Amino acid sequence: MQHLLKAQIDKISPVTDEEFAYILSHFVFKKLKKHAFLVQEGDAVKYDYFVLKGCLKASVADDTGKEYIYQFAVEDWWITDRDAYFKKSAATINIDCLEDCEVLGITFENREKLGAEMWKYEHFLSVKASLGYNSLQKRLQMMIMGNAKQRYENFIQQYPHLYNRIPKSFIASYLGVSRETLSRLYNS
Predict the structure, then answer these.
(1) Which domain holds residue 25?
(2) What domain count does the chain have?
């Protein structure tokens, strides 16, 4: 079976098995239990994480403790506090495991080293960054211009595999609606 990370890289910039082994040697493997934190607010963020197994959520909390979820990550997705990772600053978000998880982490230094040494990997990073930006732009447009029903329908269309995997209260937070509103939309 092909490695999940190699399959993702190969879709954009195919690499040989030897090149992939070299790329993989720059990552660290982490295994976490459900409810464990991958990143906690205030911590240094050393890694960008590729999800091999499991489901995670990224969130921020206001002064009252209310949580706002802005990203989920499952197999074949990336997650980190990007601002803290690139600026080498303290995390301003929390990332925790909704299931038992296995991730690969790459330091910023190793990311830059691989990018400088291998144009294929640099090209992969460039395309992934562009795709991520496009996805974020669409999400922001939906949050600004879409009503609750449109945001819900867009989520179901875009992520049908997540709906039964993530607690509805978390989906409601991600969509910026109450759990009750989500129930009404689900039942309509």
Answers:
(1) 4-107
(2) 1
